[in-house]
Q: What sequence folds into this?
């Protein structure tokens, strides 16, 4: 299943427009908050795919029957660019477990790069709903490699990928490796540059959120 927010007009268009806008991007706090709000919208949409169970809720005047989520949810993200989107999802899935993966691009002299993982922290995933988020889904290499490592912690009931902006190549990559996974995105762009940046995209989400990084640590 693929869900693209931009295929149906909503307030999410405003958040996506602002994270793309080079002028507004100069305000890093607003950039982070817009990613967070996109995460909140995506979390709301993902919640529609969960299992629910009826629960009796005692009010001051009686008992109300309410359908509440029945699944155990684990939110995972890739440091550092994924943190604002992750926080938005955590605002809604506030009962979720959390997993974090540190990954970066190791560049080579010929212009190619590979993905290096340095750190991973994750609760047990057996029978959980695993939601892996990152602000950008460019080549899909970081997302797929991180998810493979996360699966060492158990077998989730479902896997969901969530991103603010995806490329067609990145989408195809994760669907090929995880054909049963759900993919949720704010928008889909067709082009990648030679350095694997999405066009028109928005630039480097990690730098725009938290400032320039050290040389060679292109996360």
A:
């Amino acid at each position: 299943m693929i869900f693209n927010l931009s295929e149906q007009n909503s307030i999410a268009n405003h958040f996506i427009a602002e994270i793309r806008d080079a002028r507004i991007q100069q305000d890093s706090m607003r950039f982070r908050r817009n990613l967070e709000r996109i995460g909140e919208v995506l979390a709301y949409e993902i919640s529609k795919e969960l299992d629910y169970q009826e629960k009796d809720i005692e009010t001051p005047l009686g008992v109300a029957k309410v359908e509440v989520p029945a699944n155990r949810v684990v939110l995972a993200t890739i440091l550092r660019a994924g943190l604002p989107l992750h926080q938005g999802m955590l605002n809604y899935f506030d009962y979720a477990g959390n997993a974090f993966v540190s990954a970066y691009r190791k560049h080579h002299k010929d212009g190619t790069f590979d993905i290096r993982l340095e750190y991973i922290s994750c609760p047990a995933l057996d029978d959980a709903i695993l939601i892996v988020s990152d602000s950008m889904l460019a080549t899909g290499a970081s997302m797929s490699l991180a998810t493979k490592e996360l699966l060492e912690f158990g077998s989730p009931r479902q896997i969901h990928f969530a991103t603010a902006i995806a490329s067609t190549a990145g989408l195809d990559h994760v669907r090929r490796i995880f054909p049963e996974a759900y993919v949720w995105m704010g928008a889909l762009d067709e082009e990648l540059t030679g350095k694997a940046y999405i066009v028109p995209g928005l630039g480097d989400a990690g730098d725009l959120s938290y400032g320039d990084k050290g040389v060679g640590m292109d996360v």
Summary: Residues 26 and 208 are 8 Å apart (CA to CA). The longest strand covers residues 97-107. The chain has one domain: 2-50+70-210.
